[in-house]
Amino acid sequence: MPKTRIMIVEDESITAMGLEKRLTKQGYEVVGVVASGEEAVQRAEKTSPDLVLMDIMLEGEMDGVEAAGRITTSLDVPIIYLTAYADENTLLRAKVTQPFAYLLKPFQERELLVTIEMALYKHEMEKKLKRSEQWLSATLKCIGDAVVATDESGSLVFMNPIAEELTGWKHEDAMGRNVAEICNIVDEKTRAAKMGELLEMIGRDAGAHVSSGAVLIDKNGRELFIDETVSAIRKEGGIMGGIVLVFRDVTERKRMEAAILESEKTMRKQSEELIESNMALKVLLKQIENDKRIMEEKILSNVNKLILPYIERLKRNRSMSDELAYLNILEANVKEIVSPFSVRMSSALICLTPKELQVANLIREGRENKEISEILNMSLETVKTHRQNIRKKLNIYAKRVHLRSYLLSFQE
């Protein structure tokens, strides 16, 4: 382990020699013994000691206080003042240089050693604390959240660059002002100020309080949605020494959430409208199909009832033999015209003979046996025989099934 390096500044040579001997004996390394302030500054810059023992009252233009001030300006080194007497003005000047200790001459060796070790320890702790503060400050400046801190009275003592950006306040202008003035936070819905509520909550317990649904109004009146966390800084005994407030801008997130909700609302509305349109279309298509079927049935019925029977009678009239060819053509054309209307029925009744098919069509139209007999020029018994054959071929013979209703079902 390297020895602690100490510089002695003492204009009394005997005292200086005694100090050097004591320190060397205790394992310290004396890097210089000087008698003037000017020489002390030069030697310190050259040797960079770990500690300086400085006599306040030095002969020459530069006393110990001025020399210590110049040394600590360029070097981070603890100073221990040695003095037998000093006026009040000199002591006030000495305080400004922030010495680590005072030793009143004459002093005991043990007193000297304890003071040196305490000064070295205190200096090391201050260095660690300074490094921690530097690390913490750098971290708080780099993080993406805004951070502000206050003292026990609520006055601002720290704010990072993100907090400056969000609040619109510069660091130097905000320091010392009340946190409620710098961080003007209101409830999103009620617009009531929230800072008082936050301070009241952390005053009741030491935990951190996280909340959302808040709006930050910056120095220029711009409004930002934020999520914030606030916690107390506790001193010894649990006394509140201030607060730390951390908040982040969630305006863009809020905007996206609102856009998503609006999009979902629009999609639901469009979906409902589409369902309603589909239902209306189904009803319309069903109605069109039903109207089409009724029209087909009427056309087919009218042709079978009002045209084909008379064509059949004309064909049986022998006096019109010359026009028979025309009647056959007319019959074929009429059947061709109405053939699409009876496709469904024909496909179901494909097993029937032409004559049975004629009978089936007339039954379907509601004709009685006598009417069918007259139209087709056949006996009643023949009509009945055809009816039985039709039932057999449709597998409904000897069943309690109404033949006309069954035939009508083939067009539905």
Structural account:
The chain is an alpha/beta fold. The protein has three domains: 134 residues, Response regulator (Rossmann fold, 3-Layer(aba) Sandwich); 107 residues, PAS domain (Beta-Lactamase); 123 residues, no CATH class. The chain contains 16 helices and eleven strands. A hairpin with a 5-residue loop joins β6 and β7. α10 runs antiparallel to α11, α13 packs across α15 and α14 packs across α15. The radius of gyration is 56 Å and the shape is rod-shaped. The model has no long low-confidence stretch (mean pLDDT 83). One of its GO terms (cellular component) is protein-DNA complex. One of its GO terms (molecular function) is phosphorelay response regulator activity.
Q: The CATH topology of the largest domain, please? A: Rossmann fold
How far from one another are the termini? 107 Å
Gross morphology is rod-shaped
Number of helices: 16
What's the count of strands?
A: 11
Main sheet: strands, sense, barrel: 6 strands, antiparallel
Strand content: 15-25%
**Low-confidence stretches at least 5 residues in length (pLDDT < 50)?**
none
CATH homologous superfamily classification of the largest domain: Response regulator
CATH class of the largest domain: Alpha Beta
Can you give the mean pLDDT? 83
Q: Into which percent range does the helicity of residues fall? A: 55-70%
Computed structural class: alpha/beta
Largest sheet, spatial ordering of strands: 7-6-11-10-9-8
CATH architectural name of the largest domain: 3-Layer(aba) Sandwich
What's the SSE pattern?
A: EHEHEHEHEHEEHHHEHEEEHHHHHHH
Number of domains: 3
Radius of gyration: 56 Å
